[in-house]
Amino acid sequence: MDTSSYFYDLCYPTSQTLLLAIIGLLLWINRRHKTGIAFLAAGLLWLVACATPVSTTWLTGSLERQYPPRDAATYPKVDAIVVIGGDSPLSEQQDWSDEEGPMATTRVGFGYLLYKAGKAPIILLSGGSGGAQRMAAMLEQQGVPPSALRIEGRSSNTYENALYSSHMLADEKLRRILLVTSPMHMPRAIASFRKQGLEVIPASARTSPAAKPLLATDKWWPQRAVLWLNHHILHEYIGLAVYVLSGRA
Question: Of 105, 146, 101, whose CA–CA distance to 125 is shortest?
Fold first, then answer.
């Protein structure tokens, strides 16, 4: 197993709370009562904070504001467009040409818009477990010729997306790319691809309204669904830290 997987287990707020609680109990057992209580209280407060919608809004915004989405026409021309798999594409019956429509919120959809805008003659699709092949099939149905598509289907994480894609690009002497992924994932993705020596221009897909937390109640009121959303957000923060420390980004 990849050793970084152990770090990713800490992305769960419940795991972080449990860790703080264990430390607190050990301190209590060792008669360091005040410090132990402080750790127990910190764990409870952290769990409540991670279940509060306002925390999700702040954490998500701090990631997404780094590389905000733009219209496809505003990007420069490059050697290739690289689309990282990982989202759940909408129905193929959606209007792919609508920059304000649902397909523009998917990575493959925004990659298509960049290609149609003439930003690169090649689209490299990166994603294992058949993800790259499925994206390729969708693009071909929209009229993208197979000769314009490159498929990297071995990767299982962002580091491998960058590593295997860079090898394929190097084989064709392609270096300058538009990198397409979600705004929240972009900081870790762009760091990984630049580590491979590529000249990377971030091209974030638009954020789907469905991806935002459903704030049906007060933004300060803890919600179980928000706790799950914060797991994915913390995955990006911890993942980037692990990549930097391990030399992958």
Answer: 146
Least confident of 47-61, 100-114, 145-159, 198-212: 198-212
Give dist(CA 202, CA 162) in Å, integer. Answer: 13
Distance CA 128, CA 139 (A): 17
- What is the end-to-end Cα distance of the chain in Å, rounded? 20
Does residue 112 contact residue 140 with C-beta atoms inside 8 Å? no
In the chain, the amino acid numbered 222 is P
DSSP 18: H
Q: What is the pLDDT of residues 83-109, one digit of tens each?
A: 999 876 555 667 888 888 888 889 999
Residue with tokens 């909408």: 90
Kindly report the number of other CB atoms within 10 A of residue 130's CB atom. 11
Q: Is 178 helix (H, G, I), strand (E, B) or coil?
A: strand
